[in-house]
Amino acid sequence: MQELRDQNTYGAAPVAADALPDDRRAFLRRTYLHLFGAIALFGVLEVVWFATPVAELLFRAVSAGRFAWLLFMGAFVGVSALADRWAQSDSSRGTQYLGLGLYTVAESLLFVPLIGLALAASFGDDGDPTLLPRGIGLTLTLFGGMTAVVFLSGKDFSFLRSALLFGSMAAFGLVVLAVVFGFTLGLAFSYAMIALACGYILYSTSNALYRYRTDQHVAAALALFAAVMLLFWYVLRILLARRR
After folding, report:
1. HSE (CB half, 13 Å, CA atoms) of 119?
2. Which residues is 15 bridged to in the sheet?
3. Fewest CB atoms less than 10 Å from the CB: which of 64, 193, 210, 240?
């Protein structure tokens, strides 16, 4: 009966900004616990992929040609859209968790080639074993800084939405053109993408404060996780590029 009552009232929770202080704090605590849970799962999955034939199979697949990488990216975009839709579901908490889990798995597979390059650059006679730890540290530092800006200022960054959407579409278009025509996007593009990722962190953090309902902690965590992973991707790209 309790489960039935929960299903009947699901989706009726207030927006976090309008909730009681205790409820708002509980929502934010759940959101960030789920975020760090997704990050931990991502790390575990990377270990699993490199300890099994999965990583090698992915390397072979994306090395088959530049269009193979384009197909891989297209599949990731499709899976991400589905995962986000599930994570924002009002019908079932289980569907929300399935969305967050699916997105985490998809991100872990997408990162396999980049993590592989980082691991290769970390070992050997001239390797830099600090490369991955520095990438993780820089990502968490930037994430912490952007999070602090939102919480300390109390500012609503929803006005960034249009600029972020435009920037994302432009960036995706450039990536597709780079793959199709075989040119390389340089460091300037990676720095621009870090700025875009920081914008998404500001936007998603303020949404957690002002836009999400107190029962949407899974969806809020997914949005933040996506922004953190985008940031981590381009931090690693810059560190690898500077080594070369």
Report:
1. 10
2. 213
3. 64
**DSSP character string of 176-224:** HHHHHHT----HHHHHHHHHHHHHHHHHHHHHHHHTSBTT-HHHHHHHH
C-alpha triplet 80, 85, 211: angle, nearest 5°: 110
> Rg of the chain over CA atoms, in angstroms?
19
pLDDT digits (tens, 9 = 90+) for 23-73: 889 999 999 999 999 999 999 999 999 999 999 988 888 776 667 777 777
Residue identified by tokens 């597979």 is 109
pTM of the predicted model over 0.85 = yes
User: What tokens does 171 get?
Assistant: 């960036």
Q: Which amino acid is at 137?
A: G
Q: Residue 51 carries which side chain, given as an amino acid letter? A: A
Q: How far is 69 from 31, CA to CA, in rounded Å?
A: 32
Q: How far is residue 242's CA from residue 244's CA, in Å, rounded to a whole number? A: 5
